[in-house]
Amino acid sequence: MGQMIKVGMADLKICKAPDALTTIGLGSCIGIAIYDPSTKISGLAHIMLPDSTAIRNNSNIAKFADTGIQKLYDDMLKAGANKARLVAKIAGGAKMFEMPGASTGINVGERNAEASRAKLKALGVKLVAEDCGLNFGRTVELYSETGEYYIKAVGKPLKII
Amino acid sequence: MLTLNEVNEKYFDVLKEIGNIGAGNATTAIANMLGLRIDMSVPEVAFLPVEELGSAIGAEDEIIVGIMLGVEADIDGSMMFLMDMQSAHHIVNKLMMRDDSYNEPFNEMDLSAIKEVGNIIAGSYLSALSGLTNLTIVPSVPFVAVDMAAAILSVPAVQFGIFGDNALMINTDFSDDLGIKGHFILMPEEDSYEKILSALGIPL
User: Structural domain tally of chain A?
Assistant: First the structure.
């Protein structure tokens, strides 16, 4: 295996085989993995909020599902990925605290997942698998050799989608 | 009219004061509850980019305990109190009168003890804020999560991320008998943030 490249919060990166991408401790955020099996070009975005147009302060495009996924998609095509072959997997979007009567921030996980699905659909990238919701954090790893998306959670067995 | 930086600087001082009074209140409350003498360090206020919040109190994948409460009445928002696992085990063992070396995963009873401690500490900070601002602030019932630091801290990161690029956190050490390292985060909604500032006489 190659290098494990870290993607931070409100951040996105791409890599080629044999490298892998990881982001640690997704809570309500979503880790969007896009993969091209023909070139093995891979991309991972860690978005925090669903919609850049709903917020005044939107200069960091990697922070939002709409602009972040767009940028990841553009970067991958620029790197030589085959548009027609792209597939996506998403994970995260948990509700870390079971607060009722949620204010805007609390249900954001579900809204992040919805916005990510919608953006992928708009770009014509097929969503092939997902592991979203519930109430726990997830660390994800995307392996560009295989396109496997590893999901690790505290006290739970490794899940590969 | 103050610049945003000047406002933040003043808000900083206020948060530090809340940290001082709040931690003082909490110290008394916990001491009464646990019958322990506690000292606390002068709190420090950290101002950091939202993206760095996940690693602000340790490794991103370190398992920590987060207690979250909603706040309502004159201001709306939420608040969070964070402890590392060692602190949480320590305080639960004291409460449950167990040996301090006990560190099995928390059961339901342990978690409700943690909630109660979080409630007391949060309430202490909130009454400090309430006293300084003359605003009525009522906390909701607490919720607890034991998970990776980055996942728990993503909740305030998102909340701050909605209207800014930076987050504010009060760090306090409760020392002596009780080795608790605590972090307190107040997350007012945007209009409540303005309400707090104007109640403190900080013009926007």
Answer: 1
User: Which residues of chain B are within 8 Å of residue A139 when distances are taken between CB atoms?
Assistant: 61, 148
Reported as a single tens digit per residue, the pLDDT across B84-124 is 898 888 888 888 888 888 888 899 999 998 888 888 888 88
Lowest mean pLDDT among A89-93, A155-159, B115-119: B115-119
Owning domain of residue B9? 4-199
Residue A14 identity (one-letter amino acid): I
Residue B174: inside a domain:
yes
Using the CB atoms, write b or e for A37-69: b if 16+ within 10 Å: eebbbbbbbbbbbbbbeeeeeeebbbbbbbbbb
**What's the whole-model pTM score?**
0.88
User: What is the CATH classification number for the domain harbouring B44?
Assistant: 3.40.1550.10
What is the distance between the alpha carbons of residues B143 and A38, in angstroms, rounded to a whole number? 46
* % of chain B beyond a pLDDT of 70: 86
Contacts of A57 in chain B (CB under 8 A): 162-165
Of B60, B153, B155, the CB nearest to A97: B155
Q: Which residue of B has its CA nearest to A11?
A: B51
User: Catalytic site residues of A?
Assistant: 29
The encoded tokens of residue A98 equal 């079971």
Residue A10: its chain B contacts at CB < 8 A?
50-51, 161
